[in-house]
């Protein structure tokens, strides 16, 4: 469908007196309005236009929203799938079709090929001569154009045909608007259902990557995108692609922004959605960030100003631009805000559960210390007294060995008590170290000195933190029970190495001191690829150095 003229060289436009509209027009209007899906409405329009005007071929070209105003969708009727495949790409709105786009008014032609604007037909295209084009308007704006060719009986389209098709186009505009409103309502319903579903799921699931994957999965389904991803990180700094749903080559670019003007940075900085290209159309919407510097960027926060946060990316393949354009970004923004709130609630619930676990550990530790250890200590004193009363060397030796075993058991229990207080992967290591030092202060004349150097809260790997806390607990226990120290200092530095130094001014390690606890500290260091050093002399105090790579 590309051009034409009358035998005399001009278009057929006739302005004779109107006659009554055919009864079939009413049936066609009712049929067109009987479908609520936009694709179904468009297909029914071209079928009805073909039947009413007696055209062998009919098509409806939908205009795009860009400045060029070319065709973005082309719905056709009359050609089989084999012919369409042989023709190749469908028209985009040039030649005669572009003329009607630029001048949206009815046009009738005797022969397409004779019109100056005709581009001709591509190979394998069926022959077409007579032509009728009519614009379809919605609220005064051109939505697209109806194209009819090959009038039945090899004649020309008449003024009556033009009048009927113009009336059908007017009714079609109303039907298309209703279908678009219906699809918008259905889109909102999908987003609301997705929002309710992630709220329900995240109410029972903990925060983290699994929760972000839930957000990506439901966002992809609600939007109809080919892929969805969640990127987390600060406005200035490294970003990470934390969750991906579906497959799209452009998502791989999200973790590597090109600069401060990158669309990801813009979304993080402004908190506003952005349409962009990621090997195809994409929509980036903000996922509000944290308030307190958490590492995974999933906490709700203010909508403006630099913050750690995230971006929800929705991407379509290059041939699905119309689906991307149909998305209302504000629906995705509302979904992301609700997702961030659900993640915040999930995190708060996890914090409460973690606090309950720590409180239970503290209670167990107190019971072990106040009951079990005291009884073992009393039993050890009793055995020591009995050893002094015995005049048999073998009995005395056995009693002293039993006292040593009780001392070792007490140390093991104390070490278990400190390990009960060890933080899990999400706890604050600096707070846990401070808490252990405060506990040791109760058994000393003065609170131990405490110094931090480097990113203690974020630089210690999760697999190192429990070992570090256990080592510190054992070192402080030894300093309070055996060293008779007046001053104890603790230094924790984090860089390429995690280095813990515990120093006291006590009596030092005697030559015959049992080394079971120190061997345990050395084994923990060697297991992590590090080392453990002891510097001590009788009467000169003790310095313990426990050091492991920050890589874990």
TrEMBL record:
Residues 37-186 form the GAF domain. Keywords: Kinase, Transferase, Two-component regulatory system. It comes from the Bacteria. GO terms for molecular function: phosphorelay sensor kinase activity; protein dimerization activity. This is GAF domain-containing sensor histidine kinase. The keyword Kinase applies. It comes from Nocardioides donggukensis. InterPro entries: GAF (IPR003018), GAF-like_dom_sf (IPR029016), HATPase_C_sf (IPR036890), HATPase_dom (IPR003594), Sensor_HK_TwoCompSys (IPR050482), Sig_transdc_His_kin_sub3_dim/P (IPR011712). Transmembrane segments: none annotated. Residues 283-309 are annotated as: Disordered. The keyword Transferase applies. Residues 289-298 have a biased composition (Basic and acidic residues). Pfam families: GAF_2 (PF13185), HATPase_c (PF02518), HisKA_3 (PF07730). Gene3D superfamilies: 1.20.5.1930, 3.30.450.40, Histidine kinase-like ATPase, C-terminal domain. One of its GO terms (cellular component) is membrane. PANTHER family: NITRATE/NITRITE SENSOR PROTEIN NARX-RELATED, OXYGEN SENSOR HISTIDINE KINASE RESPONSE REGULATOR DOST. Coiled coil: none annotated. Residues 299-309 have a biased composition (Low complexity). Residues 463-552 form the Histidine kinase/HSP90-like ATPase domain.
